[in-house]
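Ras-GAP domain-containing protein, pasting as requested.
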Amino acid sequence: MNANQRDLEIEDDLARAQKALRELKSQISSQSKKNFVLEKDVRYLDSRIALLVQNRMALEERDEVASHLDDATDMSEGFFPNDEKTQKYGNLLFLLQSEPRHIAHLCRLVTMAEIDQLLQTVMFTIYGNQYESREEHLLLTMFQSVLTYQFDNTPDYSSLLRANTPVSRMMTTYTRRGPGQSYLKSVLADRINSLIEIKDLDLEINPLKVYETMVDKIESGGEPLPAGLQKGITAEQAAANENVQRIIAPRIDMLIEIANSFLDTIIDGLEETPYGIRWICKQIRSLTRRKYPDAQEQTICTLIGGFFFLRFINPAIVTPRSYMLIEQMPAENPKRTLTYVAKMLQNLANKPSYAKEPYMQKLAPFIQQNKERINKFMIDLCEVQDFYETLEMDNYVALSKRDLEL
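Structure tokens follow.
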């Protein structure tokens, strides 16, 4: 076999691999849409179940919801009775896709009850090709418009990007697209799976819960409670108990060690972070500087962390099965440990408040050790190039195509 033949074989193999990759990306995009629809239906069913308990849900409505869920796994394409309507519909979709300001305006007008239906159309139909650069860049342009409006019309810094609004739901939904899911799996899956394998590792540090567990263990052994132990004490009394303090101390050290391992993994995965996630972080930084020119870097990092950790990383840590990072529900102990890890990362990214959970203050050394490190990571997240020139060229190419997929 000569060199030319070998080159041709390599090119054929490469073409087959590229085709397989395109098919996989298409399947991921399709499955992401189905997952979003099912999640939306589950939320709707939750509200209907509450009404059913109160005898307010009619039998016909229940059957309608059930049939809707059955249809979600077998979505059929719509049809139009004639070419004229098809052309008009195509023109409308092309206009909405290529000029994101229209969708951005819609996002500002809808209520929380309406946002899921809009997001389903925007994220998984109009911009449904999650691995195509033009659609991704147009979607990010829409995000820029929405975020700009949000910053311009939020009166005080403390409420920026924090409330559960259509905008925050939109940002969370964006992180659930294919690239975000792939990142979470590659960065967090191994770490979470290794933790949940240790089912008996109890790292509870709430003094009252530790105290109650200690008392229950003594009573289950058939022994009377020692003189210094009694039921029905306050959280402050439990925290002052020497036995409780001895139990909690090594758990604090272990939680800090585990949280550090998660943080190391996240920081080391900087270059794996999807471009779109990083670009949104960049916009948050830019818009904060524009509105608050005197804002310190720490303040800006807090807002970036509110998106990156609160909307992206922490939900996957707290509920890894819903993100398909693990196959089975974790046992109670590792589940609680994952919750603590998420809280520690959130406190690290934001200004911590211990008013509701004063025992969390014992984990403050983790924040002190890593504050500068996490701030640098937040700034590094924002260091990505803009896409405006590329988008302009992609739009010219799109106009030259005979058909545009949606």
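Note for the archive: Residues 98 and 138 are 7 Å apart (CA to CA).
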